[in-house]
Amino acid sequence: MVNQSVHGYKSGLRQLETQIFLSFDCPETVDFTAVDKVIQKIYGLQIDEWSTETSRPHSTAETFSERAMIIARSILQDARLPIFDLGVILNTDRSEENTQKWHIQIAIPAIDHVSLKLLIKAYRSALRVLRQCIYMPQEPLNLSAIQSAISKKTVQPIRARVVAGISTTHILKAAYDLDIPFRHLGSGLYQLGWGSRARLIDRSSVESDSAFGSKVSQNKAWTSTLTRSAGLPSPTHIYLPIHLNRHNRQR
Q1: Fewer CB near the last or first residue (10 Å), C or N of the chain?
Q2: Are 126 and 68 in contact (CB under 8 A)?
Q3: pLDDT tens digit sequence for 98-136
Q4: Contact 163, 188 (CB under 8 A)
Q5: What pTM was estimated for this model as a whole?
Q6: Are 187 and 225 in contact (CB under 8 A)?
Q7: Source organism's superkingdom (predicted)?
Q8: Edge-to-edge strand order for the sheet containing 205-206?
Q9: What strands lie across the sheet with 88-94, from one edge to the other?
């Protein structure tokens, strides 16, 4: 089960955040040393990278949740979403009916104009992967199957809904490392910085490129979104399915 609340910056993340509630089953005891080795093989992550991300968890459920957050972040980055903050565990609650069932509240990074359903999809996938790492035999065939399933069922569907090039995440990661704030204006267009010193980028293109304005202005919906983000009045456009567009043109 996943629920979500409004966006904000209340939990100390450097990126815009949203809070979600997850429900999952977690065994009383888990060999996280073995689990971490499997996750390292899947994602190539180093254990020492994780120790500075959050305060050290105190319960199995919190450790389980932290690993799920790490996996979800990696999935979203593979899908070309600029998710760099790990997130924060806000609250954990054990079910009274089932001692292995937990409810947890976490603050996670959010991206403007990107459906929260895509983020939720990644966290659900991360929970499934983590359970597989705990219960499945640690054989190369199983690891390969996990990697293939993540790509086919989660990464590729999310990437298909995201407007971003290969360079987008790398550029935004460099900005994040330099403490330069950024926000998504829609359709893969990002703003770096605030106010008069802000700069716009679209993949590897910048606002000074001659084709930049032409590309944005050729799409009415993109232009409307950009105008609205500046606080100016703009129309609201509705996208129609392809078959309806074709029918209207024929009429």
Answers
A1: C
A2: yes
A3: 888 999 999 999 999 899 999 999 999 999 999 888 877
A4: yes
A5: 0.83
A6: yes
A7: Bacteria
A8: 182-186, 189-192, 199-202, 205-206
A9: 2-4, 17-25, 101-109, 88-94
